[in-house]
Amino acid sequence: MTRRTLLAAALAPATEIPIIDTHIHLFDPTRPKGIPWPPKGDKVRYKTALPPRYIDLTSKLGVVGAIELECSPWLEDNQWVLDVCAPAPIMVLDKLRKNPLYLGIRYGNIWGYDIGKELGKPEFIAGLKELAKNGMILDSANPDKKLLEDLRRASDLVPDLRIMIDHLPGMEEINKADAVLRDLSARKQIYVKVSSVLKIKNTSGKPNSVFYKPVLDEMWQRFGEDRVVFGSDWPNSDGFGTYEQVLTVVKDYVSTKPRAVAEKYFYKNSLAAYRWKPRTAAQKKLV
Q1: Per the structure, how many domains does the chain have?
Q2: pLDDT of residue 264
Q3: How far is CA 72 from CA 77, 138, 218, 271, in A?
Q4: 15 versus 166: which is more confidently predicted?
Q5: Whose CB has fewer CB within 10 Å in the chain, the N or C terminal residue?
Q6: How far is CA 130 from CA 125, 138, 180, in A?
Q7: Position 261 in a domain
Q8: CA distances from 106 to 137, 168, 278 (A)
């Protein structure tokens, strides 16, 4: 190999890291029953969000799989989501336990839920224990200090339950939750979704990793490279920036870290947290 070819090899771009997006929402406002969210007045988000649209949006961005998080309190919508995901192999997770796509539940600051009150009920604790017994995960929603304290209590009551803290970078006044975050970060079964990053308004112009570096640093410093996962929060994220902008911010950030760290963030940690099963050839290469 000549010096010229060696240099060319060194300058060649690294192989693209495949991405599992651990947080998207699916809904169809054209259904006869409509949808509970987003509201009709939301001109950005109130449009059909189904797998074909997501696939078209991400086909050239390296995304090989996605995990759907329910955005409806209607029980029957769990089955609706399974039905629309079944023909789309890019989807690797949904909601009902007997279906192999179902790997967890979501509970937190959404639809008026209060996990703190529920933790006082023996039947709710029994349900969390059943969730852990079956190797499933508890996703939270919209963190604040009280929710983090409630998740710590849930972890105390069911120590082997895997828990995902969603949207932690977008949490307001996160510094006020320092003590509980230190406690949670010491628990190896608790993961953090580095999502909703652009919720923090960038007053300096277009989204860029430099502006968001302090909050992203905090996620890695607190929870480490083995317990952070990527989530776009699409199409809710459209209210803060395009999908490509969301992805570019975190891609630029992890590009300063070893490739092994980026691989953990973009897909390896999602396997540990969600235990999803591959449905495509591209996904099988990740397992």
Answers
A1: 1
A2: 98
A3: 7, 16, 31, 25
A4: 166
A5: N
A6: 9, 11, 25
A7: yes
A8: 9, 15, 22
Q: Tokens 């929402």 appear where?
A: 25
| Mean of the per-residue pLDDT values of the chain | 86
pLDDT of residue 94: 38
Buried b / exposed e over 193-223, threshold 16 CB at 10 Å, is bbbbbbbbebeeeebebebbeebbeebbebb
Domain membership of residue 71 (yes or no) is yes
CATH number at residue 147: 3.20.20.140
For residues 126 and 207, the model is more confident at: 126
- Out of 5-19, 126-140, 234-248, 255-269, the most confident range is 255-269
Which residue's structure tokens are 């895997």? 162
Which pTM value belongs to this model?
A: 0.87
Q: Is residue 170 part of a domain?
A: yes
